[in-house]
Structure formats: structure tokens, C-alpha cells
């Protein structure tokens, strides 16, 4: 993980003093760009933020390669019920990580000074895509409901889905709001990158969240693997070792996600891109279209009007998010790398 941060620097001989707010400290940085203004030299610095670098000095790719083999093994679990314990462990770890982040947010008095009350309209599509990516779970909803002992409890007003999403939205909103109040415009794509890596708790939260993501990875890949294998499996019906080929397919899909993780440098921009391009249609527009096609003939006149008005709004929002969000994300990605 890397983060580009800008500070005001003063160079005396070979010693670089970095002023970050009211704090003066000295560290090893790689100089990305410099230009002078009188006796003052402003330097844009790049620092590698890696939690495990406090213990072992390896390249990021080496860490990822070490994690790859156990990640493949945990994705060999074929039954969603057997993945439930991993999800429980991940949730416990995630709550612990959130508690540490909240500790760093509230350990000093918060101030609204230099904080923007309302963001710029041009950045709203990026926000829209990021929110869709964070909250979108349309692919897991139906398989999860089908695997439940009491599927009817899933869609009740106070059922599993609504309670779970209420908790998630509350946590996201809390961390997002107070995280911005704490760090302001200097906040990074992941709030964990703003935590002090010279402190044990700052290192611990990055490691904890990495472990939590590791345990939830099989759940995120479950639907992709299931759909892929459904289309591929007929070609292996005549083979004796059909199950072995399924594991090959699972391995290939994990290797694809691994390759993307290595090659994509600016995660926040690509999250917004995938959220706008893929999930605005999959999570908003298509379900509305499917509901219209499936229930049009069985509903009464009043129910049809309500359903039509609701679904047209969802289709328009999804289409607008797809077009504008994708354009904005691509524009910022091109600007970032040009």
C-alpha cells in the first residue's frame, strides 16, 4: 500500500525536516518532485505505508505471494454453509478494527475548521460509484437466502437483510463522517493509511482488516465461481475427474483477482469505476426491469402504478449513475496517470 502525501519541507545539508501541521519530524522518504521558492523547497514525497514493514522488510508483492496459496485453499470450500464460520470470524475482527479506528478518531478533540460542509457536485459520481461498490451484495443475496434454514426470515421488515444493512450503513456513515472531520482533505483512499504506523495499534488495525478481508474473500468469489462453473461444467461431463477441473476453475479465478490486486495501484478510483460501471446496472436497473417483467401480469392496477413509478426511478438512477459515474471515474483515472 502506498500513499502520496504533501508536506512543507526544509532541507539543511542532507537532513530533511518535515512539518505536518504542528508536528516536526524526520523520516526517510523518496523524493518524487521538487521545485524551489527562495530558501524554501517544497517537496512532494512518497512513503510506503506497510503494516508488516515494522517487523519484516519485504516488497509488497512478496507479502501478496505468501497470502496467495492459503487464499486459494480457502476458496476450495464449495458449500456456503461451511463459509459461515469464516464470515463470523471476519466480522469479529472487523469490529475490533473499527473500534481501533474510532479510538484514533476521537482520542483528540475534533474540529470543523477547514472542513467542507458540502462536497463539489463534480465529485458526486465518484461517491455514487464507491457507495454502490461498498454496499452492493446483489450477487450474494439469493444464494444466501437459498442456503438459510428459514429463508422467509431473510426478507421480513425486520429480517436478516434489513437488520444487517442497517448496521452496515450506520457503520459506514459513522466512519466516513468522523473520519473526514478528523483528517480533512488529507484523508487517503483507505482511512487505515492515515493511522500512525509507528504505533502498535496503527499497525494492528491494518493487519486485522487484512485478515478480515482474507476470510471474506471466498464469500465474495462464491457467486462468480458458481456461475462460471455452471457454464463450464457441461464441457467436462465426459471426464472422470470433473471435481478436479472445478478446483482448476476456482484457482484460475483467484489468480485473476490476485493479478488485478497487484496491477491496480489507485484502488479508490477503480472501486468507483467498477461500482458505477457494473453495479449501477446490476444492483439498480436490472432488478427493477426483472420485477416489471415477472410481476406485471399478476398485480392489480394500483400496484402496477406504484411498481412502475418506483422501478422507472430506479432504472433512471442506475442509468445515470452508469453513464456519469463511469465517465467521471475514467476521467480521474486518466488524469491521475497522465
UniProtKB/TrEMBL annotation:
Q: State the annotated membrane topology for this chain.
A: Multi-pass membrane protein
Q: Which GO terms describe its cellular component?
A: vacuolar membrane
Query: Start and end of every Amino acid transporter transmembrane domain?
Result: 57-329
What is the protein's species of origin? Camponotus floridanus (Florida carpenter ant)
Quote the subcellular location field of this record: Membrane
**Lineage of the organism:** Eukaryota, Metazoa, Ecdysozoa, Arthropoda, Hexapoda
Q: What is this protein called?
A: Proton-coupled amino acid transporter 4
The protein's predominant localisation is membrane
Which superkingdom is the protein from?
Eukaryota
Tell me the keywords, alphabetical order.
Answer: Membrane, Transmembrane, Transmembrane helix
Record carries keyword tRNA-binding? no
User: Mind telling me which PANTHER family this protein's record contains?
Assistant: AMINO ACID TRANSPORTER, PROTON-COUPLED AMINO ACID TRANSPORTER 4-LIKE PROTEIN
The record ties this protein, via Pfam families, to: Aa_trans
